[in-house]
Amino acid sequence: MATFPAYPAHPGPPGGEQAAGAPRHPHWWQRPWVRYGAPTTLLALSGLVILALVRRQTGTEGFLVGLGLAVLPVPLLLAAFRWLDRVEPGPWRNLIFAFAWGACAAALIAIVANSFATRWIATATADPSSADTLGATVIAPIVEESAKATAVLLVFLFRRRDFTGIVDGVVVAGVTATGFAFTENILYLGNAFGTDQLSGERGLSSVTAATFFVRVVMAPFAHPLFTVFTGIGFGVAALSAERRRLRRVLLPLAGLLLAMGMHAMWNGSSSFGEYGFFAVYGTFMVPAFGLLTFLVIWTRQRELRTVRAELPAYAAAGWLTPPEPYVLGSMRARRIARQYAAHHFGRAAARSVARYEACATSLAFLRHRGRRGRAGADFVVRERELLQELWRRREVARPSLAYAARATAPAVPPPWPPYGHGQGGYGYGYVPAQPSARDGRSYPGPDPAAPRPAYDPYRP
Question: What residues contact residue 423 under an 8 Å CB cut-off, 6+ apart?
């Protein structure tokens, strides 16, 4: 039976407020039924209300037509954001929550707040046309982007382990905005279909076709593009040290303001003249979309370089095999490992290898943040959890990763210098596997005869 190396004791709270082994009583908001039950209930009620409101405005037939057309870009957008998150894929529950928040809660807030604000302005100024223009260019961007940003804020606060960088912010923000655009498109397309029913328009000259072309064909990425700026702000804040509280507050606010500005420019493009929409689309929307796409892909490549740079220390300590840092730093090699596991061991083994890859990636990011002084107080506990996850899945993951290493780089030497036990290291600086006197097998663990330096997770 394999034995784990001993872990450093996790320090208790300062001042000795809680004795070792004493039960911890979570606050009421930390109880599972509150953490999961309250958001689920809120989103379900919001969904029912938004369904009734949209159906009331569009009619049953318009609602069904709008639903059928609005759902078309959703799988493509979700697949794109999931593709961006392949290096360290976040849990599906976060994405489901983000999409549901955008489609239900954020859409409900936007409909109610925008209607109230526009009516109030129209009453105060006695100019309904100006109220509609002001509501679209000023009120709607502020309300809608704030409502969507709330989902990113909630994931940032309550799913902090899953929110570690720019890519996570982009994915959560993009999925939230995709849900919001889905509900909004149902409303716009349903109303357009109702207008065509009254006027008798059909085919490409109909209002429904024009609305579909603008919102689904030309700019399905509009709402995700706006909210991604907010996600980038939260992502950069997640990379900042916890002691820099002002920076962690100002960066998300800056991203939110930028999202509101882009949204206002897009909504106000129709007032810039006959070709104002196309001018804004070509001058701002397309370049911004290309720039953000480049930024996210570059960030993903940097994450892979971080994996290749940080994991060799754990390979030298015996937690990983020598080829694994290279394999885990290549998306092609990781895919080959999962395919090998699925072919030889079954789908459950492929899922286990995928989990192994995700945990190893999280471990590399954790160590990288620690070396830069950005790790939280739970660094030791989190590192131990990830190492245990890797150790439990090694029987299936190691043969699969070894095959991927041979298939992708059969003659590449290890890209790291020798890592001796006496060198100053970071994390669990154990020496390679030692043979056991009981059964002759090798297990990763410390050399009992060698002196062990004091463990300091934040030592550079």
Answer: 429
Residue type, 68: G
Separation of alpha carbons 422 and 181, rounded Å: 57
| pLDDT single digits (tens) 232-250 | 999 999 888 677 788 888 9
Check residue 337 and give its pLDDT: 93
- Tokens representing 345 are 């061991």
DSSP assignment of 388-457 equals: HHHHHTHHHHHHHHHHHHHHH-TTPPPSS----TTS--SS--PPSPEE-TTTS-EE----TTS--PPP-T
Average pLDDT on 68-74 reads: 94
Structure tokens at 130: 């100006």
Distances (CA, A) of 55 to 24, 128, 182, 396: 48, 25, 14, 51
Query: In percent, how much of the chain has pLDDT > 90?
Result: 43
Distance CA 281, CA 295 (A): 20
Other CB atoms within a 10 A radius of the CB of residue 454 amount to 6
Residue 434 φ/ψ, nearest 5 degrees? -110, 140
Q: Token pair 């420019």 is at which residue?
A: 265
Place of tokens 């929409």: 277
Look-up of token digits 């300091």: 456
pTM of model > 0.85: no
Q: Which of 257, 269, 255 is nearest to 136 (CA)?
A: 269
